[in-house]
Every structure is written in structure tokens, then in C-alpha cells.
Known about the structure:
Blueprint: H1 3-15, H2 18-25, H3 29-43, E1 48-50, E2 54-57, H4 59-87, E3 90-97, H5 106-115, E4 118-124, H6 129-137, E5 143-147, E6 156-171, E7 182-183, H7 184-188, E8 193-195, H8 200-211, E9 220-222, H9 225-233, E10 239-242, H10 246-249, E11 255-261, E12 266-274, H11 281-292, H12 295-300
Parallel strand pairs: 3-4, 3-5, 7-11, 8-9
Antiparallel strand pairs: 1-2, 5-12, 6-10, 6-11, 6-12
Helix pairs in contact: 1-2, 1-3, 1-4, 2-3, 5-11
Amino acid sequence: xxxxxxxxxxxxxxxxxFARAADTCHVSQPALSAAVRKLEEExxxxxxxxxxxxxxxxxxxxxxxxxxxxxxxxxxxLRDEVGALRSGLSGRLRIGSVPTASGxxxxxxxxxxxxxxxxxxxxxxxxxxxxILRQLxxxxxxxxxxxxxxxxxxxxxxxxxxxxxxxxxxAAGDGRAxxxxxxxxxxxxxxxxxxxxxxxxxRVLDAVFAELGLEPAPRVETDxxxxxxxxxxxxxxxxxxxxxxxxxxxVPPGMRAVPxxxxxxxxxxxxxxxxxxxxxxxARALTEIARTTDVAGALERLxxxx
Length: 306
């Protein structure tokens, strides 16, 4: 059994298409198909349901993919550790993030890259919380910024980073923009542009409204925080955004950000990694940065000292 065969099987499971899997592995489709068949012969179980086209993995194949992902992750961790012993940590760090927390990622990647100059970083900033846990479990990412207000499932560990608080983002000409605070009840009556209902950041807002017996009806929904700011800029909409995004954008000209109260809700956000021994070198190094970086304090400071 070769690592290459396991890589091909994992790629096939991810892409669900022989040609696309071959492309991601930089081999021909016949070469990938032959390697997967050879793996089936060595394990003496069918791994792929074949028809006129790819029909998915067999139950045995689904189980073998989990082992393959773990074996390949351990191989990569071994390489990282040996490389770190020889010349310092090198390779690629993959970080996932829910959209509302992606503005805080740079507060970790900056000091991480300074401490580990041989490492490159890839940030996937538009993941849903369920996708984050799945990709961590499948070793597709090394760490992630996500909500930790609920107990993490077995096999995961987290480092608290900051409390996500919320502001009402409105046009500066709106009457509420002149108030020091706004209530959730007041926000519910506005023409709102919010994140889509499938996103954890939106579900947090919906839970607050539900607690108050409110049922806002957003006119526009999007999976992009940038799109929320763009819609408010038109003067036609208002939005509710995580205050952490003001650290990135500030309060753009023509807008006001008013803290939401009654209740002043705060939801913890943390760095989540897979709990395993030995721990991934990349995950361990980023966790050390997270423990020594004052993310919460940095997010309180707005661009221009606002």
C-alpha cells in the first residue's frame, strides 16, 4: 500500500468525480483509476461503486477514507516535525473561519508568520460552522476560528479569543444613528439586510430575536459581510454586524454603528483544533500564538483610533 493510493482515494471522495480527482492529483484518470483498483485488491474489499459514472464510495470505502485521511495527516505532521527539528517549522498552515470571525484572523496570522517565516498560510474565510468541524475532522484544515458558545464535540479542543458583540449599522442620516444605543426591538422594525439563515452568525441573531418574541423579516440576505456594508451604504437598508468587523472596515463615511442593548449579547469565539496525540505541529504552533495574543484587546481598537 502506497501513500499515493490513499491520496487518490481521498481526492476521489472529496471531488466525487474521477476526472476532477485526477486533475487535483496531477495524474491521468486511467492512472488514478488503476491505483484505486490496486488498493481494492490489496485490501480485498470494494471501495468504489462503479456504473456508467462514479456513483460514490461503498460503506467499506467510506470507512477506509477516514483511515486514509488520518494516515495522510499523520504523515504530514511527521514531515512538519522533522522539518522543524532541522530548520524550523515550514510548510502550509490552513485556517478556516466563519465569516463573522474572519476579520480577526489577521491578528493571528501576523504574529504567526513573524515567528515562522518558512510557513505559508491559506485562509478559508467563508465556512459555515458545520463545515469547519467536518473539515477539521477530515484534516482538510489545521485550525479554525468559530463560535465556542456550545460545548465542542468529542475530539476537538478550543482556545477562547474574544467575545463577539453586535452593533446596528445604519445610514448616518437615520434617526437612530444619533442615539448612543439601539434595542433589538427597534432593530427588528427596520428594513434589514442580514446574513443567510444557514449561517451560524445569523442563527445567533435569530436566537436573540426569538428570546424577545420578535420576528424580523429581512428584505435582503447574503453570505458576505462585505455585502452587508455595501447595502447599508445605499441608505436603503440597515444591518446587524459583529463589532469585530469595525476593526477591519472602521465605520465607513455615511454610516453609524450603534451598540445593540436589551440584551447586550456577547458570544464567545475561539480557535478550534483537533485533539489528537501527537498534535499537528501547525496546529500546535498557531495555538501557542493564540494563547499569547490579546485578540480581544486588539478588536476594541478601531482604525484611526475611533
